[in-house]
Amino acid sequence: MHKRKTQQLKNRMRTLKRRIAALGPLMRGSVVELKATCGNPNCRCARGQKHKKHYYSMSQKGKTKVIYLGRAREPIARQYSENYRALLEIVEEMTMINMELLKADAVRKER
Ligand SMILES: [Zn+2]
Q1: CA of 43 to the centre of ligand 1 (A)
Q2: In 3D, which of 97, 87, 111 has the Cα closest to residue 7?
Q3: What DSSP string runs through 40-87?
């Protein structure tokens, strides 16, 4: 690999490290929407227009954990979940870069 290409990859790696540092709170899992009736026979939900309820769902070691979010916490949880997905994308790109650098023997021991 050319030295210039190596330098580009190393620069990109520095950018990705900064992006990881700047990521906000993160959470694995996803916001799920369930439709429910409230029990009031006069409510629109009794006529089929069910209420949307938001929960957060995550699986760990084969078990699914679910928490109720409600309207106020739903966008926050969604953001946390997006941050997690952004982290995974960064990890993926770092993996490709490090494989290229290793292949080109362009890495030094780093901590
Ligand atoms: Zn209702």
Answers
A1: 5
A2: 97
A3: -TTSGGGGT-PEEEEEEEEEETTEEEEEE-HHHHHHHHHHHHHHHHHH
pTM of the predicted model, to two decimals?
0.81
Q: What is the distance in A from the centroid of ligand 1 to the CA of 35?
A: 10
| pLDDT one-digit tens code per residue, 10-34 | 999 999 999 999 999 999 999 999 9
Q: Where are the domains of the chain?
A: 3-103
- For residue 25, the SS3 value is coil
**With 90 as the cut, is the pLDDT of residue 3 above it?**
no
Q: How many CA atoms lie within 13 A of 83 on its CB side?
A: 15
